[in-house]
């Protein structure tokens, strides 16, 4: 009898897979791509992925056994694993980290570490002890927690026996139930009783009878409502029926008792079902759009990647939809990537209108159940399952799903910086990973934007990507006029009201008069940026981070935007006790206040991180503005992302300068992108638009390019600098950050590592130096930068770099110092 072994990938930052022995009774079921339960570390159980099954016994004695099998069929695909491995290799991290990022926790369950309330727990707490109740309560606030988290929250030392008891009482789920952590949601639905199913006359007779008597009138109304809500279906959700009919549960119960209606529990999908409403042939591309569409297809014969450089409002989305339609018709899948924040109901419903319930949406605001469901439906693409998804609309992490056969990948707003994951590993760039995923599936990749990243445009210039230009807005809508307001000058002439110039205010007033809408963009949230002491010239700072605290008026708090630390706003300077303190700078909240004074009649909405914390708040602000329930929208970066509003005629950019002065080699490029994108919100459809940019440096070249809408000049200008100072996209930039809560340790470790690196890579290493914020959440930070030229030796150099870092961590006296590697940062 052969003895089998399985190589298991665990969702942990570990360099390799681990080999386990397969017990004979599982021989028939073990296969690659399924999950198994394995012990790892001190008595911990994990769900790991089988990467290989073989008969080569490992060269050590105590091989642990696979405990159990979770899946009958593979839950990952080969191409998916290939992308994971590429990511680990390219971004210098571990495949286990990619796995951890890719899998919804509903799938990767870390053995006994995760617990949740049992979905069938009926809420009966009479049998629970006080401690058990505490844990159950903690779990109602957060859907799932690790044992350690629960322990911390409820502050109980010996928690394991209590957890065990809760499992026995079926109040919670833990590893014992690891096999089926995913429960399909059940819904109570109301059906017509069989008697009346095919007997309309009897049904109408019954209705007449019920409505004739005062006593049963309510029942007749409820029954009628049921018939209307049911339409062509056989059922209506109970909750929906009661809500929409206004009927009482007791009337419903009577109808059920009298065998007129039937109540049943039905498995339901957690995801909204929509049926296709419009046909793609309803979209008529304009002549120039059609030309671009054909160009793209032609270029795909030559290039695997095409950049669609189309100005705002040119109708890129319509072109995408035509492309998608063709690929879906071939029975292939399409991935449509968007930056998280641009993934609004606006774009979702636009696509669902044409592609109906073939569209799956995937982003981080979804809960685990929904994510597991999407995973499964993407995986089922090759089956006949009617619930499969063919078009996935998703943020960054949707790249990591189990696609079967992609036929097209669209990366919309490809310039967007949020495509790069910063923390934790894998620190990947979704656009670049999309190109790799496309290659794996032999699927073309379409990058679309009004303001290409220098990276993508450089690839075009290098002959790597095809380029299609679309420089006309749809339906003769014009690009907006752009005005620059010289703020120091306006101040001198006393033509300012708070932080708004008279010119901007006058234009806003005129727009409001014409019932048009306004967007104001300010790159900072909060009320005033900081509390400033005139006596000692300091500002209150965070105790955990090297940042000044930001004043929030509504809560009257000074908050740290990095770690959440907050204090009540002091009346005196915390340093010198002076009362001579004042607010300096201005944020979104402050502008909102000024506007309320200037335009008391107008409805104003503010969109920033503070106002969009809840799942629905962001959608609500957008849809209110869309439906013209609000007149003025004040916001941060969030207002720049691909939104399409018809009635915006004035856009104000209030402080163009703080984007330009940010100490980052991409500051100029980013400022240009943001300003061009915000400007693009103005004057869509028939309405001409006006953009007013307030600046302290009105002569700044970035503004010049924005006014001229001159991407190419901006590109040439910036590429000069990038070449000269050896930055991307000409060079490959890798950042190594060292972190520790002790300043001396960080300093010493960084110096030593930099020295080693300089020896290995002469003239390619910069630093170590403190980043802009040298301490975050009590961790001191120090950066080392490496600039590799993009030549044949690059791969080799990256491997060497990885080795140097691993050795440094293993052997140095700085084992406690964390080393974070960020490729293409
Ligand atoms: P972009 O994404 O390039 O900024 P959009 O795709 O949002 O542009 O298009 C701008 C507006 O013009 C949208 O309201 C869109 O519905 C409309 N539009 C563009 N092309 C067409 C078309 N061919 N038919 C109908 N409407 C179109
Ligand atoms: Zn002071
Ligand atoms: Zn802080």
- What oligomeric state is this? single chain
Question: What is the radius of gyration?
Answer: 30 Å
How widely separated are the two ends?
52 Å
Q: Which percent bin holds the helix content?
A: 25-40%
Low-confidence stretches: 175-184, 269-275
Q: What's the overall average pLDDT, rounded? A: 87
Give the tally of β-strands: 36
Ligands in the model, by name, code or SMILES, are: adenosine-5'-diphosphate, zinc ion
Let me know the largest β-sheet. Answer: 7 strands, parallel
Fraction in beta strands: 15-25%
SSE class: alpha/beta
Order of strands across the main sheet: 14-15-13-16-17-12-18
Count the helices. How many?
27
Overall 3D form: globular
Which structural traits does this protein have?
825 residues, alpha/beta, seven-stranded parallel β-sheet, six-stranded parallel β-sheet, 27 helices, 36 strands, 21% strand, binds adenosine-5'-diphosphate, binds zinc ion
Tell me what the structure shows.
There is one protein chain. The chain has 825 residues and is an alpha/beta fold. It has 27 helices and 36 strands. The strands form nine sheets. Strands 14-15-13-16-17-12-18 form a seven-stranded parallel sheet, with helices on both faces. The protein is globular and about 85 Å long. The site of one zinc ion (ZN) has 7 residues, from loops.
């Amino acid at each position: 009898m052969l003895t089998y072994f399985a190589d298991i990938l665990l969702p942990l930052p570990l360099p390799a897979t681990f080999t386990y022995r397969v017990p004979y009774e599982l021989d028939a079921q073990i296969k690659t791509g399924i999950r198994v339960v394995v012990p790892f570390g001190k008595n911990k159980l994990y769900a790991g992925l089988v990467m290989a099954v073989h008969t080569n016994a490992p060269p050590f004695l105590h091989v642990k056994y696979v405990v159990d099998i979770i899946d009958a069929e593979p839950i990952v695909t080969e191409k998916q694993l290939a992308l994971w491995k590429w990511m680990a290799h390219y971004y210098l991290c571990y495949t286990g980290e990619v796995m951890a990022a890719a899998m919804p926790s509903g799938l990767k369950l870390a053995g006994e570490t995760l617990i949740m309330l049992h979905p069938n727990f009926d809420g009966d707490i009479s049998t629970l002890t006080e401690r058990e109740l505490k844990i159950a309560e903690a779990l109602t606030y957060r859907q799932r927690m690790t044992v350690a988290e629960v322990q911390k929250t409820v502050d109980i030392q010996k928690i394991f026996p209590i957890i065990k008891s809760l499992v026995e009482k079926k109040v919670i789920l833990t590893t014992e139930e690891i096999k089926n952590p995913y429960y399909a949601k059940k819904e109570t639905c109301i059906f017509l009783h069989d008697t009346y199913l095919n007997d309309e006359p009897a049904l109408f007779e019954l209705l007449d009878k019920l409505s004739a008597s005062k006593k049963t009138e309510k029942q007749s109304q409820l029954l009628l409502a049921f018939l209307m809500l049911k339409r062509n279906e056989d059922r209506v959700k109970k909750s929906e029926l009661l809500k929409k009919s206004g009927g009482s549960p007791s009337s419903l119960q009577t109808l059920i008792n009298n065998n007129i209606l039937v109540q049943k529990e039905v498995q339901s999908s957690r995801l909204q079902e929509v049926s296709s409403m419009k046909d793609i042939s309803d979209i008529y591309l304009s002549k120039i759009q059609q030309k671009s569409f054909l160009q793209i297809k032609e270029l795909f014969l030559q290039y695997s990647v095409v950049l669609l450089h189309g100005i705002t409002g040119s109708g890129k989305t319509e072109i995408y939809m035509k492309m998608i339609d063709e690929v879906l018709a071939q029975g292939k899948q399409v991935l449509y990537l968007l930056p998280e924040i641009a993934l609004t109901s606006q774009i979702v419903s636009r696509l669902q209108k044409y592609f109906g319930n073939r569209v799956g949406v995937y982003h981080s605001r979804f809960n685990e159940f929904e994510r597991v469901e999407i995973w499964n439906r993407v995986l089922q693409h090759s089956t006949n399952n009617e619930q499969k998804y063919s078009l996935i609309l998703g943020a960054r992490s949707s790249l990591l799903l189990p696609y079967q056969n992609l036929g097209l990948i669209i990366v919309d707003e490809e310039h967007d910086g949020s495509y790069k994951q910063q923390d934790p590993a894998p620190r990947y760039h979704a656009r670049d990973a999309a190109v790799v995923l496309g290659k794996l599936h032999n699927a073309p990749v379409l990058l679309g934007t009004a303001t290409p990243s220098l990276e993508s445009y450089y690839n075009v210039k290098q002959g790597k990507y095809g380029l299609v230009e679309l420089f006309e807005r749809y339906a003769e809508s014009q690009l907006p006029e752009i005005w620059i307001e010289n703020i120091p000058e306006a101040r001198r002439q006393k033509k300012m009201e708070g932080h708004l110039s008279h010119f901007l205010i006058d234009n806003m007033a005129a727009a409001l008069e014409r019932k048009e809408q306004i967007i104001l963009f300010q790159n900072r949230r909060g009320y005033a940026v900081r509390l400033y002491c005139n006596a000692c010239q300091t500002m209150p700072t965070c105790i955990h981070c090297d940042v000044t605290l930001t004043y929030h008026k509504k809560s009257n708090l000074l908050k740290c935007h990095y770690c959440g630390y907050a204090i009540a706003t002091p009346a005196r300077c915390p340093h010198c006790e002076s009362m001579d303190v004042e607010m300096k700078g201005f944020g979104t909240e402050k502008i909102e206040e000024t506007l309320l004074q200037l335009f008391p009649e107008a409805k104003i909405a503010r969109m920033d991180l503070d106002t969009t914390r809840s799942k629905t708040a962001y959608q609500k602000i957008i849809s209110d503005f869309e439906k013209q329930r609000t007149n003025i929208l004040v916001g941060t970066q969030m207002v720049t992302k691909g939104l399409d509003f018809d009635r915006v005629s004035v856009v104000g950019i209030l402080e163009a300068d703080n984007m330009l002065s940010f100490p980052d080699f991409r500051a100029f490029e980013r400022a240009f992108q943001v300003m061009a994108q915000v400007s693009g919100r103005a004057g869509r459809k028939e309405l001409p638009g006006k953009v007013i940019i307030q600046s302290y440096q009105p002569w700044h070249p970035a503004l010049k390019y924005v006014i001229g809408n001159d991407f190419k000049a901006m590109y040439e200008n910036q590429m000069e600098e990038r070449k000269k100072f050896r930055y991307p996209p000409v060079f490959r930039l890798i950042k190594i950050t060292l972190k520790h809560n002790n300043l001396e340790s960080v300093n010493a470790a960084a110096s030593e590592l930099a020295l080693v690196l300089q020896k290995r890579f002469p003239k390619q290493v910069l630093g170590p130096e403190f980043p802009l914020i040298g301490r975050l959440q009590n961790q001191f930070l120090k950066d080392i930068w490496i600039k590799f030229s993009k030549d044949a030796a690059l791969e080799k150099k990256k491997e060497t770099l990885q080795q140097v870092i691993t050795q440094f961590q293993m052997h140095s006296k700085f084992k406690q110092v964390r080393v974070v590697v960020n490729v293409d940062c």
